[in-house]
């Protein structure tokens, strides 16, 4: 542990004056021995100075729980601390080509208030990418609406891994464009599309809640409309390295309407929640048996009462940037429901962009 800490300090000192030039001059086509990153992505062994993703983690290793372990696991050669397995970068011109970019995504025609401090019903069309996940059992055709998700393209929805076929339920249908369940007079014209296939992240662990993200492929192409649109993924470079602490993103869904849990809401609800730092979040969750790592994000009010229990598992944490909304988090878990001192925990979408693209056909 001491040797690794000293190595981190040495690397930081050695590279601090050269960081800017390295970012400018770094070539996309790196060379070096092939390797596999700790999160099972194909990479190559390079000096950490040539790997902006790990370099950024290194600079924040003093405040992010679990980062040192991830960096240690990323080393290619135990005797050369500066040589790491860096995931292969895409050319800028080919950067996530299957994902939509503004102005094709993240658009809503409903103007939001500057700050929503309490949960409230969402206007029709406020969040046109929100999806309802419908399940059935062997003995009942359903649908049972148990989880939420986010439309990211004409054929794909992102949700939480724990929402992918939780036994004894089977995910079979996605609803888009809904506003109020069981109300045919709310002005909404929802569409139901059957599921072609589902994929949970291969590293998802029910016990640790890590890598809680999944993809749902639809059988048909989604017809976009005013109330059915995809949300943007946070692919801009400045967002991929952003922690979002002290930002106030939105969360929405048809989840519980009461602190501590309770009946699900029939109407789509929304709220804004402040993003907290991972270190303080980890401190409150560690005694409960859960560690908060850099691939996760925490958001919620210290006094509780309003939190991601207002939304469904798998639903979106949405941040406005310019005139578009971006999916920065996926509702994962919490302690109880909006309990004081325990922010909601979300899967950090920027940590999974490569996995998402690699699994979209």
Q: What would you note in describing this structure?
A:
- With 361 residues, the protein is an alpha+beta fold.
- The protein has three domains: 2-89, mini-chromosome maintenance (MCM) complex, chain A, domain 1 (2-Layer Sandwich); 128-230 and 354-358, Thrombin, subunit H (Beta Barrel), CATH 2.40.10.10; 237-351, Thrombin, subunit H (Beta Barrel).
- The chain is built from seven helices and 17 strands.
- An eight-stranded antiparallel beta sheet has the order 4-12-11-15-16-17-14-13. Strands 5-6-7-10-9-8 form a six-stranded antiparallel beta barrel. The protein has a three-stranded antiparallel beta sheet with strand order 1-2-3, with no helix packed on it.
- The longest helix has 14 residues, at 2-15.
- The protein starts with a helix and ends with a helix.
- Residues 34-86 form the Clip domain.
- Keywords: Disulfide bond, Hydrolase, Protease, Secreted, Serine protease, Signal.
- Its EC number is 3.4.21.-.
- Residues 116-361 form the Peptidase S1 domain.
Give a short overview.
The protein is of the alpha+beta class and 361 residues long.
End-to-end distance: 42 Å
How many DSSP H or I helices? 7
Question: How large is the share of residues in beta strands?
Answer: 25-35%
Query: How many DSSP-defined strands?
Result: 17
Indicate the CATH topology of the largest domain. Answer: Thrombin, subunit H
Q: What is the count of distinct domains?
A: 3
Which stretches are poorly predicted, pLDDT < 50 over at least 5 residues?
1-30
User: What is the H-and-E element order?
Assistant: HHEEHHEEEEEEEEHEEEHEEEEH
| CATH class label of the largest domain | Mainly Beta
Please summarize the sheet with the most strands.
8 strands, antiparallel
Shape: globular
Radius of gyration: 21 Å
CATH superfamily of the largest domain: Trypsin-like serine proteases
Q: Mean pLDDT score, rounded?
A: 82
The assigned structural class equals alpha+beta
Q: In which range does the helix fraction lie?
A: 10-25%
Sequence of strands across the biggest β-sheet:
4-12-11-15-16-17-14-13
CATH architecture of the largest domain: Beta Barrel
Enzyme class: hydrolase
Family: Belongs to the peptidase S1 family. CLIP subfamily.
Main location: secreted
EC number: 3.4.21.-
